Amino acid sequence: MYKNFLRLLSCCSLFCALGLSVQAQTRTISGKVTDKADGQPLPGVTVADNNKSASTTTNESGRYSFNIPAGTKAITFSFVGYEAVTVSLGAANTINAVLSSTTNTLEEVQVVSVGYGTLNKREVSSAITHVSGKDLLAVAANSPLMSLQGKVPGLNISNTAGADPNSSPSVQLRGVSSRNAGLGPLYVINGVPGGNIDNINQNDIESIDVLKGGAASAIYGTRGSNGVIIITTKKGSAQSQMFYDGYASFDYLTNKLENLSADEFIANRVKNQKGQDYKGNTDWLAAVTNSPAFAQKHTLQFSGGSAKTNYFASADYRDADGVDLRAHKNEYGARLTINHATDNNMFVAALTVAPRYMKTSNSDQGNFNNALTLNPTYSIFDNAGKYNYINTGFFSNNPVENANVIKSDAEIKELDINGSLRMNILSNLYTTVTLSQISRSAKLLNFTPSTLSSIVYANKTTQTNYASQEQQENDQKNIEWTGNYNLDLGRHHFKLLGGYSYSLYNYKQVKAQNYDFPFDSYLWNNLGSGLYNGGAAGQGQSAVGSTQNGSTLISFFGRLNYDFNNRYIFTASLRREGSSKFGLNNKWGNFPAVSAAWRLSEEAFMKGALPWVNELKVRADYGITGNQDFDNYLSLLLYGGAGYFPYNGQYYQVYGPSSNVNPDLSWEKSVNFNAGIDFTILNNRISGSLDYYIRTNKDLLGYYNVPVPPNTQATTFSNVGTMKNYGLELAISAEAIKQTDFGYNINVALAYNRNKFISFSNEIYKGGTFQDVAGLPAPGSPGNIQRIQEGHSIGEFYTLRSAGVNDAGALLVYRKDGSIVPANQASNDDKQFVGNGLPKFIGSIGNTFRYKRFDLGIFLRGTFGYKIFNTAAFYIGTPSSQSDANVLKSAYDSSSKYSLLTNSATTSIASDYFLENGSFVKIDNVSLGYRQPLASKYLKSIRLYATGRNLHTFTSFTGGDPEGVPVNGLTPGVNTSLNYYPSTLQLIFGLQATF
């Protein structure tokens, strides 16, 4: 028994010793966390030790208490919307912390994407603009690019149909750069060139970097000529988190064109024998408008993991109507990113999968213009309650009927997949292999019923109802293998990149159509039941069609970054790239680039003389980039239909050459020079950059006349022509007020751009010295109103120069000899250069205010120094406009100069009488938010926000919103179609919640 007692005593002693040992290996830390802005406690703050082995959250009083390992050196306080704070531990067990909102400080962005890697901002020697995801504008738009509008000097993003949920913006960097190749930049998403911008949820964006300088974009070779936009999406972290963002938006028509009411039409048009009274009373513009157009979007994000494995997952849903009756979009998207590292960090793997499904109903953008021109005394419905048949006016149809019964739908599926494996061979040497695929499948569906009034009225027996289906498949596969080596030799720092890239593009299309179905209810789902294309009286050959084409792009590239003592910086890169699009003699091209920078602020003489200068860097870069954004097979001899050949009483389709072969076809080449200054002053309160650039685009692509024979065709697609853009860009950010309860930041972006077309010809292909563009449609024969001419800028209006209006209401113009005649007595030889539609200046001012937990953003944007051709006034803005068509109210407003044009003899003759100043300033975005931390264990914080977009436009332009007229492309300042999609004022109400 004694022995058993000793055994029991020994066991108890052992357990006590273990307990004392465990107690000695931990310590208890407690404290309180408050908000720096107002001193209030912050509930829901995550407190974790530096090894992530223990964590807790603060309670409703902002207090916390938890046990941590005895050897812990520091703890970290983190909370969404606030700067994380790490506190080193001493002997004290009570640690209090004060957190600052992320809007409190003007942070210098430390890391920017430069293509195939990142650099510290201080190491960058080329023109790159970095925008953090939290600085993007709050928008309810189809494309995340609209949230970047006005943020980057030199990057012009516009959408002339912004309230159409299926529209896409036009994007142009540093002016127009081509005649016949693409004008848009290259998108690189999470390191994958050619990424799908439509498959990005704005809430998933971590940052956007815009490579503007040639030295930066030259690493992408034949795709870098129009700049590069690098989008990085969010990734997971060891901190578990769930985030929700949801909003509802409402679009209201604003700056709309005003036409005559029925009473005004009778008083002005019918009375003057310019129209008939059909005894109805219809506001056609209101009848085809869905206002307010409602949209909603919901995003749910999850992230978490450990030090070795983390994930980020998001899902979003959007349902949006357009301001026209037919437009609609319903979409679902998701994104999953997983990162994993082995225990020894030898291998790091990453996988991203992003599917998206969209079901759309396409707008009929011509319906608004149709509504503007229709006689308002017409009724929508006839006496029998059916849609009224309309056969007068510009378009001779019923727009309400078109919007409600004609269907134009689409089903779109997108899938982006990319995976990478990185091997860390040494601490300063690693290699990465990345595989990716970008797929897009679109099914286009169209249907016109047999009940359409124009079909019924014409008593058609064939080609009644109509349906079609078209399937389009786009697929891009990429493989990239890169190696990175870093070496530090004292004050000498080297970074070396080498890589290989292979991209395979493929496009497939199949389509089918038919007429005369037994039932309208079939829509497009039973094309075989139609009789027209398959029947004896039909055209069977046009019933179906299909095509397939593709291209291959192969690249080898390298880059060296060197700096001496973090003071003198040098970068050189070279990309050698080959494309199957190019001719046999020009398959491969070299794209070199160099850049250098000097950080003067690191020099002793600067630190002593100007201590208030925190950072001052001068830089210059030179690079050659290319543009291969044109159709496949244009360098090859292609065959097409060449008529029919009779044989034994039958006619057979024969084929022959349809294009000329061009073995010398190559990429467009851009020679870029950029010089700039980056600065930060006054204790980092003010920072900015100034850039001057010259870009010369050579070997512009186009069709040129050639003799037949020896050529089989009269034109050849070739590299001919030279164009130049130059300009200045300025960006300034300032933390104007920095107080505990109140802060004010201001951001300014300004860009000046000029363009000059140098040549249409070279030694082989001799073109003319000019090309007339911007042709206006009927009625009448207005012709082209702009001219691209050697020695002049893109966007030059070339029309008759007006000399006023005579007493008979006829437009007067100047002839070349200076005499004045009515416009119908002048000729094309009397046309002159009368103005330019290319803006000289584009600028923005962003203002961000913070008061305690409130935040207010006010963003102003403007475009200056250009002319707009008032297309609406030209066609429907004068008393002499087409008979029985409605016109704008200004046509009979004595204060409008257009009311003077009463003589139909000079109608449809274009002149600078219709040019107006296009300059404008917009109150573009105003956003107010309030963040409230919560004590609930289920919910950490919420933020309520309201945003107004396009609130007011200050302009002298009388043709509606001047931004509705495109300024990107080859014909800036003119809308060459009669289609009109009105501008909208948008209100957004949203909620963000962190769990």
From TrEMBL:
Gene3D superfamilies: Carboxypeptidase-like, regulatory domain, TonB-dependent receptor, beta-barrel domain, TonB-dependent receptor, plug domain. GO terms for cellular component: cell outer membrane. Residues 121-228 form the TonB-dependent receptor plug domain. Residues 1-24 form the signal peptide. The keyword Cytoplasm does not apply. It comes from the Bacteria. It is a multi-pass membrane protein. Coiled coil: none annotated. Residues 40-60 are annotated as: Disordered. Pfam families: CarbopepD_reg_2 (PF13715), Plug (PF07715), TonB_dep_Rec_b-barrel (PF00593). Transmembrane segments: none annotated. The keyword Repressor does not apply. GO terms for biological process: siderophore transmembrane transport. Residues 363-951 form the TonB-dependent receptor-like beta-barrel domain. Residues 48-60 have a biased composition (Polar residues). Its main location: membrane. InterPro entries: Beta-barrel_TonB (IPR000531), Beta-barrel_TonB_sf (IPR036942), CarboxyPept-like_regulatory (IPR008969), Plug_dom (IPR012910), Plug_dom_sf (IPR037066), TonB-dep_OMP_SusC/RagA (IPR023996), TonB-dep_OMP_SusC/RagA_CS (IPR023997), TonB-dep_rcpt-like (IPR039426). PROSITE patterns: TONB_DEPENDENT_REC_3 (PS52016). Keywords: Cell outer membrane, Membrane, Receptor, Signal, TonB box, Transmembrane, Transmembrane beta strand, Transport. It is found in: Cell outer membrane. One of its GO terms (molecular function) is siderophore uptake transmembrane transporter activity. Belongs to the TonB-dependent receptor family. This is TonB-linked outer membrane protein, SusC/RagA family. It comes from Pedobacter soli. The lineage of its organism: Bacteria, Pseudomonadati, Bacteroidota, Sphingobacteriia, Sphingobacteriales.
